[in-house]
Amino acid sequence: MAPRRSRTKKTTLLSHTRPPTVRAKHATLSSKATRNLIRSHHRLLKNRAQALKANDNLLIERIDAQIRENGGLEGYQLASRLGQSLERGGDSSKVLVDWLSPQLSRLQDTKSKLRVLEVGALSTQNACSMNHFLDVTRIDLNSQEPGILRQDFMEMSLPRDAADQFHIISLSLVLNYVPDAIGRGEMLKRCVTFLRKPPLSGSSFHITPRLFLVLPVACVKNSRYLTECRLRDIMSSMGFVLEKSKETSKLIFQLWEHRHDLQPASFKKEVLRPGKMKNNFAIVVKR
Protein backbone atom coordinates (compact mmCIF):
# COMPACT_ATOMS: atom_id res chain seq x y z
CA MET A 1 0.00 0.00 0.00
CA ALA A 2 1.42 3.37 -1.03
CA PRO A 3 2.22 5.76 1.83
CA ARG A 4 -0.26 8.60 2.32
CA ARG A 5 0.93 12.05 1.42
CA SER A 6 0.62 14.74 4.05
CA ARG A 7 -1.29 17.71 2.79
CA THR A 8 -0.27 21.25 3.66
CA LYS A 9 -3.25 23.41 4.50
CA LYS A 10 -3.36 26.53 2.36
CA THR A 11 -3.63 29.80 4.25
CA THR A 12 -7.15 31.18 4.08
CA LEU A 13 -7.38 34.42 2.13
CA LEU A 14 -8.88 37.44 3.82
CA SER A 15 -11.46 37.74 1.07
CA HIS A 16 -12.66 34.22 1.83
CA THR A 17 -13.24 34.96 5.50
CA ARG A 18 -15.15 38.20 5.13
CA PRO A 19 -18.93 37.92 5.37
CA PRO A 20 -21.27 39.38 2.74
CA THR A 21 -21.50 43.16 2.75
CA VAL A 22 -24.67 45.16 3.14
CA ARG A 23 -25.28 48.88 3.21
CA ALA A 24 -24.80 50.47 6.60
CA LYS A 25 -27.99 51.64 8.28
CA HIS A 26 -26.73 54.74 10.02
CA ALA A 27 -24.85 57.74 8.67
CA THR A 28 -23.54 58.77 12.08
CA LEU A 29 -22.67 56.97 15.29
CA SER A 30 -21.73 58.14 18.75
CA SER A 31 -18.24 57.35 20.03
CA LYS A 32 -19.66 54.66 22.33
CA ALA A 33 -21.76 53.12 19.54
CA THR A 34 -18.72 53.18 17.26
CA ARG A 35 -16.61 51.24 19.77
CA ASN A 36 -19.40 48.75 20.46
CA LEU A 37 -19.97 48.11 16.75
CA ILE A 38 -16.27 47.50 16.11
CA ARG A 39 -15.97 45.14 19.09
CA SER A 40 -19.11 43.26 18.07
CA HIS A 41 -17.90 42.90 14.49
CA HIS A 42 -14.54 41.50 15.58
CA ARG A 43 -16.22 39.07 17.98
CA LEU A 44 -18.60 37.84 15.28
CA LEU A 45 -15.72 37.45 12.81
CA LYS A 46 -13.83 35.35 15.34
CA ASN A 47 -16.89 33.15 15.88
CA ARG A 48 -17.39 32.89 12.12
CA ALA A 49 -13.79 31.78 11.58
CA GLN A 50 -14.26 29.04 14.19
CA ALA A 51 -17.51 27.93 12.55
CA LEU A 52 -15.80 27.93 9.15
CA LYS A 53 -13.02 25.75 10.51
CA ALA A 54 -15.61 23.34 11.93
CA ASN A 55 -17.59 23.32 8.65
CA ASP A 56 -20.68 24.35 10.62
CA ASN A 57 -22.68 25.94 7.80
CA LEU A 58 -25.76 26.47 9.94
CA LEU A 59 -23.78 28.48 12.49
CA ILE A 60 -22.07 30.44 9.69
CA GLU A 61 -25.48 31.44 8.31
CA ARG A 62 -26.64 32.49 11.77
CA ILE A 63 -23.51 34.60 12.34
CA ASP A 64 -23.79 36.16 8.87
CA ALA A 65 -27.34 37.18 9.74
CA GLN A 66 -26.07 38.88 12.91
CA ILE A 67 -23.35 40.66 10.92
CA ARG A 68 -25.91 41.88 8.38
CA GLU A 69 -28.13 43.07 11.23
CA ASN A 70 -25.19 45.16 12.47
CA GLY A 71 -24.67 46.75 9.05
CA GLY A 72 -22.22 44.26 7.57
CA LEU A 73 -18.71 45.16 6.47
CA GLU A 74 -19.88 48.60 5.36
CA GLY A 75 -21.22 49.26 8.85
CA TYR A 76 -17.87 48.25 10.31
CA GLN A 77 -16.03 50.50 7.87
CA LEU A 78 -18.34 53.39 8.72
CA ALA A 79 -17.50 52.92 12.39
CA SER A 80 -13.79 52.70 11.57
CA ARG A 81 -13.90 55.87 9.47
CA LEU A 82 -15.72 57.72 12.23
CA GLY A 83 -13.22 56.45 14.78
CA GLN A 84 -10.37 57.73 12.60
CA SER A 85 -12.09 60.99 11.65
CA LEU A 86 -10.28 64.27 12.17
CA GLU A 87 -13.10 65.46 14.41
CA ARG A 88 -12.28 62.63 16.82
CA GLY A 89 -8.52 62.92 16.38
CA GLY A 90 -8.26 59.36 15.14
CA ASP A 91 -6.17 59.49 11.95
CA SER A 92 -3.39 57.02 12.80
CA SER A 93 -1.39 58.04 9.72
CA LYS A 94 -0.62 61.36 11.45
CA VAL A 95 1.65 59.37 13.76
CA LEU A 96 3.33 57.74 10.77
CA VAL A 97 3.97 61.05 9.01
CA ASP A 98 5.34 62.56 12.21
CA TRP A 99 7.71 59.63 12.71
CA LEU A 100 8.88 59.85 9.09
CA SER A 101 9.54 63.60 9.22
CA PRO A 102 13.38 63.25 9.39
CA GLN A 103 13.36 61.16 6.20
CA LEU A 104 10.79 63.37 4.48
CA SER A 105 12.80 66.52 5.21
CA ARG A 106 15.69 65.06 3.21
CA LEU A 107 13.45 65.01 0.13
CA GLN A 108 12.85 68.77 0.17
CA ASP A 109 15.11 69.55 -2.79
CA THR A 110 14.47 66.38 -4.77
CA LYS A 111 11.71 65.03 -6.96
CA SER A 112 11.78 61.70 -5.16
CA LYS A 113 8.92 60.31 -3.11
CA LEU A 114 8.60 57.42 -0.70
CA ARG A 115 6.27 54.71 -1.94
CA VAL A 116 3.68 53.72 0.67
CA LEU A 117 1.30 50.76 0.60
CA GLU A 118 -1.66 51.41 2.87
CA VAL A 119 -3.46 48.13 3.54
CA GLY A 120 -7.06 48.46 4.70
CA ALA A 121 -7.28 52.09 3.58
CA LEU A 122 -10.43 53.95 4.59
CA SER A 123 -9.81 57.43 3.19
CA THR A 124 -7.91 59.31 0.51
CA GLN A 125 -7.79 62.39 2.74
CA ASN A 126 -5.70 61.15 5.67
CA ALA A 127 -2.34 62.59 6.66
CA CYS A 128 -0.14 60.28 4.60
CA SER A 129 -2.31 60.76 1.50
CA MET A 130 -2.02 64.53 1.78
CA ASN A 131 1.77 64.57 2.18
CA HIS A 132 3.56 65.62 -1.02
CA PHE A 133 6.59 63.43 -0.32
CA LEU A 134 4.58 60.22 -0.12
CA ASP A 135 3.26 58.29 -3.11
CA VAL A 136 0.47 56.24 -1.53
CA THR A 137 -1.14 53.11 -2.96
CA ARG A 138 -4.35 52.40 -1.04
CA ILE A 139 -6.04 49.00 -1.00
CA ASP A 140 -8.99 47.48 0.83
CA LEU A 141 -11.21 44.44 0.46
CA ASN A 142 -14.31 46.61 0.18
CA SER A 143 -13.26 49.93 -1.34
CA GLN A 144 -15.60 52.75 -0.32
CA GLU A 145 -14.34 55.56 -2.56
CA PRO A 146 -12.33 56.28 -5.72
CA GLY A 147 -8.60 56.19 -5.08
CA ILE A 148 -8.79 53.02 -2.98
CA LEU A 149 -8.22 49.83 -4.95
CA ARG A 150 -10.40 46.82 -4.20
CA GLN A 151 -7.65 44.32 -3.43
CA ASP A 152 -6.88 41.55 -0.96
CA PHE A 153 -3.27 42.05 0.18
CA MET A 154 -2.85 38.29 0.48
CA GLU A 155 -3.79 37.91 -3.19
CA MET A 156 -1.61 40.71 -4.59
CA SER A 157 0.82 39.53 -7.24
CA LEU A 158 4.28 39.17 -5.75
CA PRO A 159 6.73 41.92 -6.77
CA ARG A 160 8.71 41.22 -9.93
CA ASP A 161 11.26 43.94 -9.17
CA ALA A 162 11.82 47.06 -7.06
CA ALA A 163 9.19 48.96 -9.06
CA ASP A 164 6.52 46.72 -7.49
CA GLN A 165 7.82 47.21 -3.95
CA PHE A 166 7.32 49.89 -1.32
CA HIS A 167 9.44 51.85 1.14
CA ILE A 168 6.68 51.87 3.75
CA ILE A 169 3.82 49.46 4.44
CA SER A 170 1.02 50.53 6.76
CA LEU A 171 -1.00 47.92 8.66
CA SER A 172 -3.20 50.14 10.80
CA LEU A 173 -5.81 48.02 12.61
CA VAL A 174 -5.46 45.41 9.88
CA LEU A 175 -3.57 42.54 11.50
CA ASN A 176 -6.20 42.24 14.23
CA TYR A 177 -8.90 41.92 11.54
CA VAL A 178 -7.32 38.73 10.18
CA PRO A 179 -9.50 36.03 11.77
CA ASP A 180 -6.85 33.40 12.52
CA ALA A 181 -3.41 33.37 14.12
CA ILE A 182 -1.65 31.61 11.22
CA GLY A 183 -3.03 34.15 8.74
CA ARG A 184 -1.56 36.98 10.83
CA GLY A 185 1.87 35.40 10.69
CA GLU A 186 1.57 34.93 6.93
CA MET A 187 0.60 38.58 6.50
CA LEU A 188 3.69 39.77 8.36
CA LYS A 189 5.94 37.50 6.27
CA ARG A 190 4.30 38.78 3.10
CA CYS A 191 5.09 42.37 4.10
CA VAL A 192 8.81 41.55 3.93
CA THR A 193 8.43 40.54 0.28
CA PHE A 194 6.83 43.87 -0.61
CA LEU A 195 9.45 46.09 1.05
CA ARG A 196 12.16 47.59 -1.18
CA LYS A 197 15.77 48.37 -0.34
CA PRO A 198 17.33 50.08 -3.41
CA PRO A 199 17.89 53.88 -3.31
CA LEU A 200 15.09 56.19 -4.36
CA SER A 201 14.54 56.57 -8.09
CA GLY A 202 16.75 59.35 -9.48
CA SER A 203 18.51 59.80 -6.14
CA SER A 204 21.36 58.33 -4.12
CA PHE A 205 19.25 58.70 -0.97
CA HIS A 206 18.85 55.36 0.79
CA ILE A 207 16.01 54.67 3.19
CA THR A 208 15.59 51.63 5.38
CA PRO A 209 12.18 50.11 4.55
CA ARG A 210 9.65 50.26 7.35
CA LEU A 211 6.44 48.65 8.55
CA PHE A 212 3.91 50.80 10.41
CA LEU A 213 1.88 48.58 12.72
CA VAL A 214 -1.16 49.67 14.73
CA LEU A 215 -3.01 47.26 17.02
CA PRO A 216 -5.58 47.55 19.79
CA VAL A 217 -3.50 47.74 22.95
CA ALA A 218 -5.37 44.75 24.39
CA CYS A 219 -3.94 42.53 21.63
CA VAL A 220 -0.47 43.01 23.09
CA LYS A 221 -1.08 43.96 26.72
CA ASN A 222 -3.94 41.63 27.64
CA SER A 223 -3.52 38.53 25.50
CA ARG A 224 -2.68 35.15 26.95
CA TYR A 225 -0.83 34.22 23.74
CA LEU A 226 0.99 37.43 22.78
CA THR A 227 3.26 39.69 24.81
CA GLU A 228 5.47 42.61 23.82
CA CYS A 229 8.47 40.29 24.09
CA ARG A 230 6.89 37.65 21.85
CA LEU A 231 5.90 40.27 19.27
CA ARG A 232 9.46 41.59 19.26
CA ASP A 233 10.82 38.06 18.79
CA ILE A 234 8.45 37.42 15.89
CA MET A 235 9.35 40.67 14.17
CA SER A 236 13.07 40.14 14.81
CA SER A 237 12.93 36.75 13.10
CA MET A 238 11.61 38.54 10.02
CA GLY A 239 14.45 41.06 10.04
CA PHE A 240 12.64 43.93 11.78
CA VAL A 241 14.01 46.21 14.50
CA LEU A 242 11.66 48.40 16.53
CA GLU A 243 12.41 52.04 15.77
CA LYS A 244 9.54 53.85 17.48
CA SER A 245 6.61 52.95 19.69
CA LYS A 246 3.70 54.85 21.17
CA GLU A 247 0.83 53.71 23.34
CA THR A 248 -2.54 55.26 24.15
CA SER A 249 -5.35 53.90 26.30
CA LYS A 250 -6.75 52.06 23.26
CA LEU A 251 -4.00 51.61 20.66
CA ILE A 252 -0.36 50.73 20.30
CA PHE A 253 1.59 52.30 17.40
CA GLN A 254 4.89 50.84 16.22
CA LEU A 255 7.35 51.63 13.45
CA TRP A 256 9.59 48.72 12.51
CA GLU A 257 12.72 49.08 10.37
CA HIS A 258 13.57 46.15 8.14
CA ARG A 259 17.34 45.87 8.55
CA HIS A 260 18.11 42.18 8.23
CA ASP A 261 17.23 39.20 6.08
CA LEU A 262 14.39 36.91 7.03
CA GLN A 263 15.56 34.26 9.50
CA PRO A 264 12.89 31.55 9.38
CA ALA A 265 11.61 30.65 12.83
CA SER A 266 8.45 29.05 14.15
CA PHE A 267 6.24 30.59 16.81
CA LYS A 268 3.35 28.49 18.05
CA LYS A 269 0.25 29.41 19.99
CA GLU A 270 1.15 28.92 23.63
CA VAL A 271 0.07 30.48 26.90
CA LEU A 272 2.50 33.25 27.85
CA ARG A 273 0.27 35.25 30.18
CA PRO A 274 -2.25 33.08 32.08
CA GLY A 275 -5.50 34.51 33.35
CA LYS A 276 -9.25 34.10 32.99
CA MET A 277 -9.73 37.70 31.85
CA LYS A 278 -7.12 37.55 29.07
CA ASN A 279 -8.10 37.54 25.40
CA ASN A 280 -7.08 34.97 22.79
CA PHE A 281 -5.30 37.18 20.24
CA ALA A 282 -2.29 35.34 18.84
CA ILE A 283 0.22 35.36 15.99
CA VAL A 284 1.47 32.00 14.76
CA VAL A 285 4.45 31.80 12.42
CA LYS A 286 5.37 28.69 10.47
CA ARG A 287 8.64 28.18 8.65
From TrEMBL:
<feature type="compositionally biased region" description="Basic residues">
    <location>
        <begin position="1"/>
        <end position="10"/>
    </location>
</feature>
<keyword id="KW-0949">S-adenosyl-L-methionine</keyword>
<dbReference type="InterPro" id="IPR021867">
    <property type="entry name" value="Bmt2/SAMTOR"/>
</dbReference>
<feature type="binding site">
    <location>
        <position position="120"/>
    </location>
    <ligand>
        <name>S-adenosyl-L-methionine</name>
    </ligand>
</feature>
<feature type="binding site">
    <location>
        <position position="140"/>
    </location>
    <ligand>
        <name>S-adenosyl-L-methionine</name>
    </ligand>
</feature>
<dbReference type="GO" id="GO:0016433">
    <property type="term" value="F:rRNA (adenine) methyltransferase activity"/>
</dbReference>
<dbReference type="InterPro" id="IPR029063">
    <property type="entry name" value="SAM-dependent_MTases_sf"/>
</dbReference>
<dbReference type="GO" id="GO:0005730">
    <property type="term" value="C:nucleolus"/>
</dbReference>
<feature type="region of interest" description="Disordered">
    <location>
        <begin position="1"/>
        <end position="20"/>
    </location>
</feature>
<keyword id="KW-0808">Transferase</keyword>
<keyword id="KW-0489">Methyltransferase</keyword>
<comment type="similarity">
    <text>Belongs to the BMT2 family.</text>
</comment>
<dbReference type="Pfam" id="PF11968">
    <property type="entry name" value="Bmt2"/>
</dbReference>
<protein>
    <recommendedName>
        <fullName>25S rRNA adenine-N(1) methyltransferase</fullName>
        <ecNumber>2.1.1.-</ecNumber>
    </recommendedName>
</protein>
<keyword id="KW-0539">Nucleus</keyword>
<comment type="function">
    <text>S-adenosyl-L-methionine-dependent methyltransferase that specifically methylates the N(1) position of an adenine present in helix 65 in 25S rRNA.</text>
</comment>
